[in-house]
Backbone:
């Protein structure tokens, strides 16, 4: 039986959700990357958290191309994502933050992967980081290591919508590592991850995401303690090991030791990062 969200050709509807707050600088590029996808059966949902800059004006310019958008205060990132997921009608859901952008054929490759791997619950891929207009490094998704750290690039993740009904959506207990907790929850419950060896999305590496890195590590540690109670990866020792590794990397960045930093990313980092 064909799903109500498939057309006669069997193409599934894909829902893309973008959350934004005061994103006037980057929201246009994000939206254009969704609206310009080569795969056309896409609905686009934008959840604004009550922006006070020109973001609303930009959303109004795209009103006819958006399936749904709304602007009202929320209780944080998890709440905003969940609002978007509740609006989604697609069989597959992708989440793309304002400031990030998809590759042109990202959704097409993801749909093909879901068609090929009928049991797949999550399809993910590589994330390209940028510094200004220059490519910084490439980070691939490695779901088999999720118990150890956030080894899946969340902007590249596409999830079967039914999983949110079976296992729940984003926990509002988490303010920074909500994506890690959700993906770990999926994996613990036997969800099958399929990884594509290609870039699906792009992100700017401007240092902003590093400000709260230790709080984020504490949240990932909390998620592991909750779901991996008897694992070494849920111990305080492992948490301090992760903190030490992050301090080393940040120190190398501050010192500008690019050669040593490249060695760290290629040889020491849990998920190897390449040019």
Residues:
């Amino acid at each position: 039986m064909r799903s109500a969200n498939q057309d006669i050709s069997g193409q599934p509807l894909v829902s893309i959700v973008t959350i934004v707050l005061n994103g006037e600088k980057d929201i246009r590029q994000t939206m254009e990357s969704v609206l310009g996808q080569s795969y056309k059966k896409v609905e686009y949902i934008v959840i604004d958290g009550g922006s006070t800059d020109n973001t609303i004006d930009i959303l109004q310019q795209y009103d006819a191309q958006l399936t749904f958008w709304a602007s009202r205060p929320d209780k944080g990132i998890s709440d905003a994502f969940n609002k978007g997921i509740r609006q989604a009608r697609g069989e597959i859901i992708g989440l793309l933050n304002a400031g990030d952008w998809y590759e042109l054929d990202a959704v097409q490759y993801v749909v093909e992967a879901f068609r090929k791997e009928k049991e797949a619950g999550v399809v993910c891929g590589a994330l390209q980081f940028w510094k200004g207009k220059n490519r910084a490094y490439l980070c691939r998704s490695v779901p088999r290591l999720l118990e150890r750290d956030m080894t899946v690039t969340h902007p590249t993740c596409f999830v079967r919508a039914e999983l949110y009904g079976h296992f729940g959506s984003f926990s509002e207990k988490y303010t920074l590592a909500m994506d890690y907790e959700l993906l770990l929850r999926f994996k613990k419950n036997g969800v099958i991850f399929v990884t594509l060896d290609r870039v699906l999305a792009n992100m700017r590496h401007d240092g902003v995401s590093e400000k709260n890195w230790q709080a984020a590590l504490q949240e990932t540690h909390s998620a592991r303690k909750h779901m991996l109670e008897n694992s070494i990866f849920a111990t305080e020792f492992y948490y301090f090991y992760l903190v030490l590794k992050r301090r080393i990397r940040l120190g190398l960045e501050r010192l500008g030791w690019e050669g040593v930093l490249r060695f760290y990313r290629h040889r020491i980092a849990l998920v190897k990062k390449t040019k």
In short: The chain has nine helices and ten strands.
